[in-house]
Amino acid sequence: xxxxxxxxxxxxxxxxxxxxxxxxxxxxxxxxxxxxxxxxxxxxxxxxxxxxxxxxxxxxxxxxxxxxxxxxxxxxxxxxxxxxxxxxxxxxxxxxxxxxxxxxxxxxxxxxxxxxxxxxxxxxxxxxxxxxxxxxxxxxxxxxxxxxxxxxxxxxxxxxxxxxxxxxxxxxxxxxxxxxxxxxxxxxxxxxxxxxxxxxxxxxxxxxxxxxxxxxxxxxxxxxxxxxxxxxxxxxxxxxxxxxxxxxxxxxxxxxxxxxxxxxxxxxxxxxxxxxxxxxxxxxxxxxxxxxxxxxxxxxxxxxxxxxxxxxxxxxxxxxxxxxxxxxxxxxxxxxxxxxxxxxxxxxxxx
Length: 351
Known about the structure:
alpha/beta; 3-stranded antiparallel sheet; 9 helices; 38% helix
């Protein structure tokens, strides 16, 4: 298997996202990267679920961690009877996949795929299927990278030869892939990244990947997108999505909606990347995760608001299809009103 993370930024390398080895899962702590390079080590699959819930890993990182967490769960129950291991792994899949509510449907696809692989090994008489599950986790992630590489090619083709692109939050693999493709296509593009409070994924993660891959990047605060669009000649606004509903609604990091409104006003097309979610035919099936409101009263651990002030923290917001120019997928650019034409193949890699 040819690794698809070749030539990508350091934090997009499989081993540096989440990795199972010798009864442990090591997860890069994206809450503090790149200020500090630190890994959280989990010795139990419940700790992996906790790390996902606590935002140790973000964007598509939880999907990698979930699969590696299933390998760890397999290690935990090794040597038991086949039925006991299946029962243990079934419970582990449920625990890990429900660590965060908004993305649980995608997480279920991943953990169930790992469970099926484990069952095959156990049916063949294996007493320890942890390495088998790990191999599947690597294949799963590699297949996702390969598919997103095609998406990155379609997205990069939308960039002007010399232009400016605004991003939102941390779009993980698609950032690396669109940059690799832009480089292949000889595109000279500069990027503007809103900081994305309260975890600052844009300033810490997106900007780090863009810089590591040799492109010009400027960090702006979350209240600057409209000004920058007007004064810096932004050609395209792009983001990935935590959920792409079949009816064209986009669920992504809170702040995406207001940038999409500004983009529409300034005539800047908004292209979202990803695959439509089978589990979310309409926006009515999505539950927006509300996180600890105290997080908006601080910045990287430093209190910034009056102690008597209240906080409010929806993790995501909803962008309606009328603000979306196109959904960039691995089969091309689709209208948000025509997502039914997308053909799903292997469900567990559609993340």
